[in-house]
Amino acid sequence: MKEAERQDATDFEARSKSAFDASVERLDGRTRSKLTQARTAALAEFERARARPRWLSYTPAAGLTAAVVLSVLVGFWPRDERMSEGGLSFDDFDLVADTESFEMLKDVEFYAWLDEVPEFGDHTG
Prior knowledge:
The chain is an all-alpha fold. Helix content is 62%, strand content 0%. It has two domains: 2-73, no CATH class; 78-119, no CATH class.
């Protein structure tokens, strides 16, 4: 059974090649010239693409890797850690971004101090 299938495939290939060759022979000179020019241009582009430095092909993968690493670092960054410059945590930026809470910004030091004071129920004494 396998041999018959192989023979059928070979016969199909031979018939296809002869039909293609016959169709090419029927083309006029102008069309053949255009096809030859297109083939030459395609092969030249292929050669130019092969001549590019190999490291350029890794550029998209490197960018994707950098984005993934950055997103993982941002995702696992500690949320309660205070910023060194202003003493505000990342959660406090919601207050700054909200225009309705602009009045609270006048007393930022008070709210920072209030955040550091233990709650009333936590005193041991």
